User: Fold Alpha-1,4 glucan phosphorylase from Pararhodobacter oceanensis.
Amino acid sequence: MLPMTANALRDAILKHLEYSQGKDLANASLYDMRMALTLAIRDKVVEPWFRANRASYQAQSKRVYYLSMEFLIGRLLEDAVMNLGLTEAAHEAVAGLGHNFRDVLDDEPDAALGNGGLGRLAACFLDSMSTLGCPAYGYGIRYEHGLFRQSFGPDGRQLESAEDWLRQRHGWEFARPDTAFQIGFGGIVAESGRAAVWTPDNAVLAKAYDTPVIGWQGKWANTLRLWGAEAIDAFDLDAFNSGDFTGAAAPEALARTISRVLYPDDTTDQGKELRLKQEFFFTAASLRDILRRFARECSDLSQLPNRVAIQMNDTHPAIAGPELVRLLHDERGMEFETAVDTARACLAYTNHTLLPEALERWPEALMTRVLPRHMQLIERIDALHAQRHPTRQATILEGGEVKMGELSFVMAHKVNGVSALHTELVKSTVFNDLHRLHPERIINQTNGITPRRWLKGANPRLSALITDTIGSGWEDDLERLRDLEPAIATPEFRDAFAQVKARNKSDLAQWIGQDMGIKVNPDAMFDVQIKRFHEYKRQHLNILEIIALWQEIRENPTANWAPRVKIFGGKAAPGYVMAKEIIHLINNVARVINADKLTRDLLTVVYPPNYNVTMAERLIPAADLSEQISTAGKEASGTGNMKFSLNGALTIGTLDGANVEIRELVGAENFFLFGMTADEVVACRQDPAHMAKAIARSQRLTRAIELIESGTFSHGDPSTYRDLTQNLRTHDYFTVCADFDSFWDAQRQVDQAWFDRDNWTRMAALNTARSGWLSSDRTIKSYMQDIWSIAPMI
Ligand code: 26Q
Assistant:
């Protein structure tokens, strides 16, 4: 493909300004300019997109269908421009039209159609599938409102407001009003011969919206197809004519609620009827679409597993099992057992959690009311499995509930965990019974991240240094970063590396100053913990250590402390009271510490609100230290940990999730390990006094907890954080107390390492050089081999 010149791009922008935005240059707003550039770039994506679709059609190739409730894609413009090799041309064209390129990019809203790791993983996978030429569709929901916007009240509590990314036109998508399916709910099931006829008593329309996903260098493009819900009869004219103007629009409003809002990952949302409807809505629409595409190319349904690989991203699309059986058996007359086996050969399931409260279960009564035929099929699937494995103990149905994990396992030919440790725990804990019956089924696929967004796009300075040192080509062959190692031995490279980090930090310091009005020392260590708030992720362990450190600095302010800027980012589910208490505490500790003149230059706490993908792209390249401090055995993988290591931050972390693999990759000497292992955590909990003993043996921890209880961070009110401190003193399921001293010691080792700045830089650069394996290209190649049996098309 010929690179487009800035002039041609300029003309394309002007054309879209005029004909798509209806503006001339003189009247064009920043929004108009951004939209015109988006549409001009989208035009460039269409040709490779068509080419890829034609190629996979002509090759009659097997395709991947990645079913996910969440795609946390963030902004798309900068990525698309970069993948097409048009960054310089676009910069020049936009500048020539009198606008600032950065401002134009920053005008794009962050598409937050996901909560966190699971949704961002799906987005990285889309990028890698397009880069590798793996024919694929992402299928999900076109939420009108993505993840809520977070702000902090004057008292430091989290406030939530509706996110509204679709208020403006979504410039990347193509609406497909002609690709729409009716999705039914409720109703009755009539037996008719061998099969059954399900007559739903209400239905909504699932309408397709396609976003092309362009890969690196524009060699391939796939489709992200999101379903929007609409009423089948949009408007009740009789109601309108009889004067009921609100009632006339009621069917439309009701139907649209299904794709109205993303659930904010809240275990209190478990068992909510609307959530089940969302899950069935997008899964059923996707399967209809998949079978329709298959039927255009092949009429022999036994060939389905040779053409179709369906990946279920957690159990959220688990209803795909029974629904595919229904489509094959009830609607296409396939034998029930053959239908089950055919469906299983198509389906695979990724598990992302072991937390019992996060494993989906649906009350049978609810399932029967919303999806009566599926409930019957689930019972038959369970009975068939029991009949084939008379010794089995596990059941899909238990205590009046449908266990979606077990259903997914039984209906999948492969089940995967997302890191080595997590996969072993999947085998030995949640799915132990099923694993013993099907020892070949569970496999590991360690997560990965796309280096295009998370290194090339987010960290242009480091990318330029890498290219200067080892040439280009690392962007889609990330293991080549190993070639940096000889250079790291030279002081010139280390100085250049340190300078990149310093510049990134200075940019971040400026942003923190402007956005939050907090002055930070850009030479201090930038110590970052960004992720959803959850007790198992232990942001409270971090803030307790900060409190203890603050105390010791105050007592001995002239000692040799490593100056730190402690940065937090992340949201708590609106109904998760304890997580919100931790946020409240962090904000108030920040208020108190940042006002202390004695410690001002040594310790600052910064917590910018509304952490999202765009903020991650800003923070990660500027980080010196990455906090990955979950209770061992609880974080399935983590992917933020990978982004930090790739960008030359050192990790302080537990042996949890992919930390284990990261530590092996970068070398134990370049990683600050602390805390109990997963086994030790389990053993520790055997002693009901583990937290009391840990507090008793640690002066520092005792004082930190007592300082909170004294009201120091709550305007003298000792009751404010009582729930939190009492939980630590009496319950502490996530072993914050038991790991505290070990964490403190590791942090002091971090301080010592920081004083030898050149060696710190060497360790940081080695983290970058040895992180190539963390590319999601590696992960996707492995899925293609081990699960999907698909060969790359390029
Ligand atoms: C379930 C029921 C009702 C409402 C919401 C949910 C729900 C929504 C989102 C449950 C879980 C999630 C998201 C889970 C998630 O993000 N898990 C993370 O997945 C990453 C990718 O594999 C891992 O790296 C993280 O360790 C894991 O926590």
Q: What stands out?
A: The CA atoms of residues 569 and 608 lie 6 Å apart. The chain has three domains: 1-59+80-109, 60-75+110-447+780-788, 504-774.
